[in-house]
Write a structure and sequence with these properties.
This protein has 6 helices and 7 strands. By secondary structure, it is α/β, with parallel strands linked by helices.
């Protein structure tokens, strides 16, 4: 074998990687029942299993720069069949989708607000959200600090952080 691995090693590594991904996603492995340290709330996972108009996700920090996560996440979720509402204060369109200056200006319902912004911007937007309209806020790595998470937990029933929405929706 060119890689120097024994036969069957690659298959074993793939099995271990799949098991690790299942644990990370909060799916229990029957052989090794380990719970993900920060599980995604069951109602959020149920919502993510619905696609199209069944799950509307606002992406705060959406970008037309294809190298930024605000662009990558919009395209990824849209490609998976979700209704994506890009939020950007100046751009009228992101990745071919109509963009909205604020979450409040995006058409309801909004099921998940996903943040791809620095913590200071995240905090400002979070304060402007109406918990009666949005029940799930999702923070990508780099968009939150402890203060943001504390503030979100006092206002919203479902707060997700330390998990990438693109990875969690890969099922």
């Amino acid at each position: 074998m060119a890689s120097g691995l024994r036969p069957g090693t690659t298959r074993a590594l793939l099995r271990q990687g799949a098991r690790d991904l299942m644990v990370w996603l909060g799916i229990r492995d029957k052989e090794d029942p380990v719970e993900r340290p920060f599980p995604i709330p069951a109602p959020v996972m149920e919502r993510l299993r619905r696609k199209g108009s069944g799950t509307r996700i606002a992406v705060v920090g959406a970008s037309n720069n294809p190298e930024k996560y605000g662009h990558i996440i919009v395209r990824n979720l849209h490609g998976k069949g979700y209704t994506v509402l890009p939020i950007h204060p100046k751009e009228p369109e992101i990745a071919g989708l109509r963009a909205y200056p604020t979450v409040a200006e995006a058409p309801p319902p909004i099921h998940v607000v996903n943040f791809v912004t620095p913590p200071a911007v995240t905090r400002q937007v979070l304060e402007s959200l109406d918990p009666a309209v949005v029940d799930t806020v999702w923070f990508q790595d780099g968009s939150w600090d402890d203060g943001v998470i504390e503030a979100a937990r006092t206002r919203f029933p479902h707060v997700v952080h330390r998990a990438c929405i693109m990875m969690v929706t890969n099922y």
